[in-house]
Write a structure and sequence with these properties.
Strand content: under 5%
Helix content: 40-55%
Order of helices and strands: HHHEEHHHH
Structural class: mainly alpha
Number of strands: 2
Distance between the termini: 21 Å
Number of helices: 7
Length: about 190
């Protein structure tokens, strides 16, 4: 979309005033930042593209983790706290999660780019630095889009698995992680 001449001029004036207010150090940092973003553009992985020579699970093997809970840690969890954690995990299993005061009902198969407040979907295939995340017309409210990607609901599922030993919690947690990895390839969205 082409801006009218007056709008282009006022935007240019704003940038000139902003540039005058910057220190030499800030100008250098911002220039380097823009150079990095330009260089990284060629590394963007488009959704659905296969990355040659790379695999999350090389050889079909699942990663193992050396960290374990301290002996007796699970037994030390008070029963009311364990019950609350299991209830929260059941909510996630049924597709419900409350984030930033807004209910999400798509957690069986999350839409990682959906803003439940505006109903908009942020772009998932554009180069990440080309997306104006401050423009709600483009992304919806980015806070609500990004919040789900913080995976707080996955930690609840993992906690429920640790407390109950029920594989279904671990399976759903793994499904959500894989879904996120597939739908959020490097530098896209």
């Amino acid at each position: 979309m082409q801006l009218p001449n007056a709008a282009r001029l006022s935007k240019l004036e704003w940038y000139l005033r902003r540039l005058q207010a910057m220190s030499g150090r800030e100008i250098l940092w911002r220039s380097q930042d823009q150079a990095w973003k330009l260089a990284w553009r060629s590394r963007q992985v488009k959704p659905g593209a296969r990355v040659p020579g790379r695999s999350l699970l090389a050889g079909g093997q699942y990663p193992t983790f050396g960290a374990v809970l301290a002996s007796g840690a699970l037994a030390a969890v008070p029963a009311p706290a364990a019950e609350l954690a299991l209830d929260a995990a059941e909510q996630v299993m049924s597709g419900h999660w409350r984030a930033l005061g807004v209910d999400r009902d798509d957690l069986v198969a999350p839409d990682w780019f959906y803003d439940p407040l505006t109903g908009r979907h942020a772009p998932s295939d554009k180069y990440c630095f080309d997306i104006n995340s401050r423009d709600e017309a483009v992304t919806g409210n980015a806070k609500y889009v990004w919040e789900l990607s913080r995976m707080h609901h996955v930690t609840v599922l993992v906690c429920a698995f640790a407390l109950s030993g029920q594989e279904r919690f671990a399976t759903r947690a793994a499904e959500h992680l894989r879904s996120w990895w597939e739908q959020n390839p490097y530098l896209s969205g």
